[in-house]
């Protein structure tokens, strides 16, 4: 776990990289379960298209309304040891995938990370996949960094195609000397009406713990995950075709998890999921 160092930046962005809101919810959970202060924020005028990502009107506690603009913010932990992990502290980076000037956007955030002496980065993403909601959420863990792959048992990404902001940020982090790992949760594609997906968020946080050693409070997430799964069970119970489809996915997943399944076969299936067509309910194919 020392390979990522003791000042680890956990990153997630809304949008293309965030099926079921699983990744962004993971970072939100981390921030709400600890004490953080804003360390850096980009100027939204430079990077966001407000016709694509519109500012939101929110009602404040006193009943007044205010505008909340799209952003990308780096959060610093307030306490010497965050989340109870001796020697490990988690910084957070969250926001919206930018609409323009990606290289400048990433350069700005990497400079901010370097100023915080960040020693490693974990990028979180989620994608829609042909997986059953009744089984543990699959999380692909990969890295372009050979040392991290050897030390942490990560896969080497082989995907070729359109990239999202996580790939650009991870590449810039490696160039700056910040080793980066990526975690991608597979969210069942037929649960688009049951977002957010707390079961996928919980799976991502479990892997963050495994990679960094941080003890992350789970709060209500386990109960929320069970309720999410139960709500899909109830919906499927009234749809014979969906029930049969889920059963087929369960059989496929159980075959993957069997001792006879090879790593190559599983990797090939993962690549097939990443190459699905684009659209608002399609997987983010960035890694």
Please, could you describe this protein's structure?
With 287 residues, the protein is an alpha/beta fold. It has a single domain (2-274), classed as PAC-like subunit (Rossmann fold). Helix content is 38%, strand content 21%. It is built from 9 helices and 9 strands. The protein has helices at 22-32, 44-47, 102-115, 146-152, 165-175, 198-212, 221-237, 240-257, 263-274; strands spanning 7-14, 36-41, 56-59, 65-68, 72-77, 89-96, 120-129, 139-142, 180-188. The strands form 2 sheets. The chain has a 7-stranded mixed β-sheet, with helices on both faces. 41% of the residues are buried. Residues 277-287 have low confidence and may be disordered.
């Amino acid at each position: 776990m020392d390979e990522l160092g003791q000042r680890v930046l956990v990153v997630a962005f809304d949008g293309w990289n965030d099926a079921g809101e699983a990744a962004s919810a993971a970072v939100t959970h981390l921030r709400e379960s600890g004490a953080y202060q804003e360390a850096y924020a980009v100027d939204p005028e430079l990077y966001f298209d407000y016709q694509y990502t519109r500012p939101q009107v929110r009602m404040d506690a006193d009943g007044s309304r205010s505008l909340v603009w799209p952003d990308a913010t780096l959060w610093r932990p307030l306490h010497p040891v965050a989340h109870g992990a001796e020697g490990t502290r988690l910084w957070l980076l969250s926001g919206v995938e930018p609409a323009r000037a990606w290289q400048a956007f990433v350069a700005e955030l990497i400079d901010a990370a370097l100023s915080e002496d960040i020693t490693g980065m974990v990028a979180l993403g989620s994608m829609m996949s042909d997986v059953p909601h009744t089984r543990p959420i699959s999380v692909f863990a990969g890295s372009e960094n050979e040392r991290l792959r050897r030390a942490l048992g990560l896969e080497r990404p082989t995907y070729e195609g359109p990239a999202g902001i996580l790939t650009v940020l991870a590449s810039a982090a490696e160039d700056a000397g910040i080793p980066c790992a990526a975690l991608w949760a597979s969210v069942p594609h037929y649960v688009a009406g049951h977002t957010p997906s707390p079961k996928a968020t919980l799976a991502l946080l479990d892997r963050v713990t495994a990679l960094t050693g941080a003890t992350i409070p789970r709060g209500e997430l386990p109960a929320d995950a069970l309720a999410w799964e139960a709500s899909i069970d109830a919906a499927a119970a009234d749809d014979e075709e969906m029930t049969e489809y889920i059963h087929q996915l369960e059989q496929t997943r159980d075959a993957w998890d069997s001792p006879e399944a090879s790593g190559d076969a599983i990797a090939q299936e993962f690549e097939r999921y990443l190459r699905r067509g684009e659209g608002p309910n399609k997987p983010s194919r960035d890694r």
